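Structure first, sequence second, as always.
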């Protein structure tokens, strides 16, 4: 069931307050954490409702769905900033780089090669985050530090000049055990700090972590961007997909 515009407005306001509180409690500067509205499986109307409440940053998992929805929104003339956050097949990259400003789910060098190839065609640049595997029950992301380093090295050697590395993304395990969630996010933060030192030519400032159920923990652990779907738009209706 999709939330109505009034509920979306209230939820966005509530989330901003909660993000502010979490920033304060963690001793972090006010406004350092961005709110990305994840609208996968929700209709164009819900996105327009969020835009009318001032939301600009959105996230989508699937390129085809994102393309259909956001091309329509573009036609209407609305301003938005779209990130792709779901695992990406090579043949979807062409459309992904057309509509998104950032791909947060880079998890292999092959994908960097394809992003470079597609962006080079139109001489556009795109931001990327490197997704890192930090949770036992998830399969996505670079699995080891070595693999992650190799991908950054690939960029550092100038092999993907249209790709701008901006930081890292991870998902915590789906659990009520807060310690496991903390461990996952802190592993990401420590890994990111290591990579920042090693690859100091890049501005690896973004740490995309935290969803509806765990964003407060993510902010305590240094997140700079939370990706929130359910808490804004309601439950997803997967049968409508
Ligand atoms: C769906 C999704 C989210 C949002 O999840 P909610 O629990 O609905 O907030 C965040 N990140 C990724 C990668 C997702 O696929």
């Amino acid at each position: 069931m999709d939330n109505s515009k009034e509920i979306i407005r209230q939820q966005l306001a509530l989330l901003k307050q909660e993000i502010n509180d979490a920033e304060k409690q963690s001793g972090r500067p006010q406004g350092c954490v961005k709110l990305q509205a994840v609208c996968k499986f929700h209709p164009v109307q819900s996105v327009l409702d969020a835009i009318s409440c001032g939301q600009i940053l959105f996230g989508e998992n699937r390129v085809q769905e994102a393309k259909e929805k956001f091309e329509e929104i573009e036609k209407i003339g609305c301003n938005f900033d779209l990130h792709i956050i779901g695992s990406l097949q090579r043949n979807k990259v062409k459309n992904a780089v057309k509509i998104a400003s950032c791909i947060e789910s880079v998890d292999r060098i092959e994908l960097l090669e394809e992003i470079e190839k597609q962006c080079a065609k139109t001489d556009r640049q795109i931001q990327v985050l490197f997704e890192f595997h930090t949770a036992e029950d998830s399969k996505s992301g670079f699995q080891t530090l070595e693999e992650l380093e190799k991908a950054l090295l690939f960029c550092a050697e100038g092999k993907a000049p249209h790709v701008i590395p901006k930081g890292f993304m991870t998902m915590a395990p789906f659990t009520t055990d807060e310690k496991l969630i903390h461990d996952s996010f802190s592993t990401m933060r420590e890994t990111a700090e290591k990579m920042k030192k090693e690859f100091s030519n890049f501005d690896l400032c973004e740490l995309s972590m935290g969803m509806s159920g765990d964003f407060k923990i993510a902010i305590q652990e240094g997140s700079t961007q939370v990706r929130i779907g359910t808490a804004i738009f309601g439950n997803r209706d997967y049968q409508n997909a």
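Margin note: The first strand starts at residue 34 and ends at 38.
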